[in-house]
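Reviewer 2 asked us to include a model.

Predict the structure of this chain.
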Amino acid sequence: MSMTHYMQLLAENQPWNLLLFMAVPIILAETLAITELIVLFTRATSGAVRTVNRWAGILVGAYFTVVFAYLMATAAIPLTLAGAWRGPIDVIAVGFYLFGIVPLGGVALLELGLVARGRSDHDRLKLHVFFVALFLVTGHIAMIAGMMDPTLLWSGDASGGHARH
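Predicted model (structure tokens):
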């Protein structure tokens, strides 16, 4: 059984890749999600929890923008150009991980007041919740697919080569 490029990235250069590509973004995103629940429950528009929520959103969005740019340049584009994907599950794992830029970037832009400026606080809160929920779904899809054998659902070999006989 081979591993997805997602898992290979996390397994290499221990512990640094695991920290940089998994721990930091997930800790920030989980902080965002937990404080989001408190904000929703209390309807807090200010205070310590809302401040942590705001800064976690800005930091995770900015951090993941750098991660996204780096992985696009060093992994996704080169793998695509070389035809080196290990099957559909490999593409799903990496693709959903990289898609995290949409919700995480969205939260950061929302917190910085660069999107939805003219909307009510309630509408901004709904958009904020949507972005957090979208990240939780896409992040978990990436993690689950990342742990699978990338050759499932595919008749090619693990190196991106020819079909098995």
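Helices lie at 5-11, 16-42, 48-82, 88-99, 101-111, 121-146. The chain has one domain: 5-146. We have added this to the supplementary material.
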